[in-house]
Write a structure and sequence with these properties.
Blueprint lengths: L15 H17 L9 H5 L6
């Protein structure tokens, strides 16, 4: 896995199959998260960022 800053240009455009796979993964995570107590985002649990 390679991490890149969000502001860098994409070097790979997802194929339709990759896009569908990614969408299915996100849907599965969203569907199963409440069963594992992770249905809230980090910001919902901890509040807004503070400080510098």
């Amino acid at each position: 896995m390679t991490w890149a800053a969000a502001y860098l240009p994409l070097t790979h455009v997802a194929t339709p199959q990759e896009s569908n796979r990614h969408k299915a993964l996100k849907e599965r995570i969203a569907r199963t998260a409440p069963q594992h107590g992770t249905d809230r985002t980090y910001r919902q649990k901890h509040g807004p960022r503070t400080g510098g």
